[in-house]
Amino acid sequence: MIGTTDIIITIGYILLIVGIGLWTGLRKKTAGGEGSGAYFLAGKTLRWPMIGLALFATNISCLHLVSLAQSGFDAGLLNGNFEWMAAFTLILLALFFVPFYIRSGVATLPDFLERRYNRACRDWLAFVSIVSAIIIHIAFSFLAGGIVLETLFGIDMYASIIVIAALTGLYTIVGGLRAVVVTESIQSIVLIAGAVIITVAAWNKMGGWQPMEAVLADHNALDKLSMMRPMGDASGMSWMAVFLGYPVLGIWYWCADQTIVQRVLGAKDENHARVGSLFCGFIKILPVFIFVLPGLFAWTLYKSGGLDVSALMHTSADGTQTLDSKGIYTLMITQLLPSGLIGVLVAALLSGLMSQIAGALNSIATLASFDLYKRFKPDTTDVVLVKVGRWSSGVALLLSIALLPLLNRYQSLFEGINDVIAHIAPPITCVFLLGIFWKGASARSAQLTLWLGSALGAAVYALNKLAPGNLLGGIPFMMMAFYLFLACVVMQVVFSFVYPVVHTEQSAALYWRSIREPLAGKGWAGFGNYKFLSLLLLLAMGALYWVFR
């Protein structure tokens, strides 16, 4: 439980964000109407700093802060790979995907798939994108946020979730993408500041890096500092699993998921879209140090007697005591921070929660309006499209809350999310990659790969959950994602020969003739050039992986 001062800070922050979101949306209305382009894509006026911060805020939620700290406590820096590997996929987004998205002027990624392939591909991706946004971006985030708020405030988890859902939905539904991006930019700064505060507090309590290493050495746990684990590692996250499996998840998430890419689609121009994506790549270096590392500090503090984890100990029926590390972040907040700063940290947690939910709701509104409703009523006015989007957001909120009891069964929410993504992503990653890099990828082949690949992923997921002792049950989810991706690639290549490609005028312009073609654009001069920034980010990530290998 936390004090009155911290409660006031928390409530004040929530009201501030809601007020800014509503003011931004209503100001846009009075300034010049509310067309669908302004509502869903912010009138294509977004600049690179706002894009980069919004991408980061949409990605990082309360779930990430809580779960990455838990993973740091349990396994060390290992799950930081999900953050650092994102930098490589953001480079792919900036160099190879952004030009097609911006030049084609699409409002949604399903729209892009229709132009490259056919209408069936668009329909399927729109459906999968809405479902994944409800489950992955909203429901899981609600669950993590509800657990934290219940622990800190003693409020019923579902009651706190409903209040946050109502407030976030209010400014998102009223203000559209511009309200989302403006509030996300603010929330990114608050979230990073809060994470830095808890990191500094844990660092000071531990006494720095060397005392932490000494405790790790005393417990034969120096491998917790390694990002690259050997083949056959018990975690299932060997270096091979990371480098083969993550790109399958990452390309879908960062390059082909509407919730994420919508910030790029609202860019002022191609350069702002590219540099904004790369800016996010640089920001993604931080989470290992400010989200994961505090959890590792918590483990060494626990082992050295500097952190009381008795509140997390549970006694089973046979008298055995086990440590449930899901609440470690909340424990750190209450034990390492003074009054006042606790309120700031809670505000940071709420920043992550509200920003991801807001981003997902806006994307669902866009998909439901442009890719589903407008298909059946192509002459729909902008006013009606906006109304459909708002109603869709409201329904999505209700569905996500209804899913909470089911998703609460996962022991680790972070692993639960990635397990789901590993079975959704492979066919989508496949059709996007082959679509932009291979002239011969046909519309019929993409359609069948999306259908059959999704069915295969769902079947494997169900089999592993219903019969965990089967032959596939021992395959780590990262490697499973890679194997499913390979199966999808084989499917699409074979089907492309069975059903040869017949390009339309649009699709003929939506694949790269050579690897050099997307790099032909000069970009901005100086340090803001996207080629220079891409190379700098690659070198930075290479150096970091060398240090923490």
Terminal Cα separation, in Å? 40 Å
Q: What's the arrangement of strands in the largest beta sheet?
A: 1-2
Report the mean per-residue pLDDT as an integer: 84
Contiguous helical run count: 21
Rounded Rg: 23 Å
The ordered H/E elements are HHHHHHHHHHHHHEEHHHHHHHH
The CATH superfamily name is Sodium/glucose cotransporter
User: Which residues form runs of ≥5 with pLDDT under 50?
Assistant: 38-42
State the share of residues found in helices, binned by percent: over 70%
Percentage of residues in DSSP E strands: under 5%
Question: Which shape, going by the Cα principal axes?
Answer: globular
Give the second-level CATH assignment, the architecture.
Up-down Bundle
Number of strands: 2
- The tally of structural domains comes to 1
Give a description of the structure:
By secondary structure, the chain is mainly α. It has a single domain (4-26, 43-547), classed as Sodium/glucose cotransporter. Helices cover 74% and strands 1% of the residues. The protein has 21 helices and two strands. The protein has helices at residues 4-32, 36-41, 48-59, 62-75, 81-104, 109-116, 119-153, 157-206, 209-218, 239-255, 258-265, 270-283, 286-303, 328-336, 341-376, 382-402, 404-407, 413-437, 443-466, 477-498, 530-547, and strands at residues 313-315, 321-323. A two-stranded antiparallel sheet has the order 1-2. A hairpin with a 5-residue loop joins strand 1 (313-315) and strand 2. Helix 4 crosses helix 7 (119-153). It is globular, with a radius of gyration of 23 Å.
